[in-house]
């Protein structure tokens, strides 16, 4: 092999090595950029999910409070109705008790 051919092969190998190193560096850069982008997307998704969960919790809490208020109002109405009915019967009950006490039963 001639000296000129050896120089050509050496230059070609050097160029190939240089291209390979550049390609490896570019691949690493692309991978790093993709990983960074992926992390960013994950963070965005986490923030969005957290926000949605908080909104759903507030909505559920509001519905729970509304339901509890309705139940409490229904119970209050029942109590008032029972008190009203009891007031209507109190005179009769007092009369019966007084009659029993007076008759000695």
Could you tell me the radius of gyration in angstroms? 44 Å
% residues in beta strands: under 5%
Distance between the termini: 139 Å
| Total number of strands | 0
**Helix/strand class:** mainly alpha
Helix content: over 70%
Quick tags:
0% strand; 105 residues
Layout: helices, strands, pairs:
Blueprint: H1 3-103
Structural overview:
- This protein has 105 residues and is mostly helical.
- The protein contains one helix and no strands.
- It is rod-shaped.
- The model has no long low-confidence stretch (mean pLDDT 90).
Write a brief structural summary.
By secondary structure, the protein is an all-alpha fold.
């Amino acid at each position: 092999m001639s000296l000129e051919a050896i120089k050509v092969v050496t230059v070609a190998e050097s160029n190939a090595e240089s291209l390979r190193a550049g390609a490896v560096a570019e691949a690493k850069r692309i991978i790093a950029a993709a990983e960074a982008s992926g992390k960013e997307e994950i963070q965005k998704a986490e923030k969005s999910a957290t926000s949605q969960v908080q909104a759903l919790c507030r909505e559920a809490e509001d519905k729970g409070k509304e339901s509890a208020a309705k139940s409490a109002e229904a119970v209050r109405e029942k109590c008032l109705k029972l008190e009203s009915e009891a007031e209507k019967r109190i005179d009769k009950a007092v009369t019966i008790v007084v009659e029993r006490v007076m008759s000695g039963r």
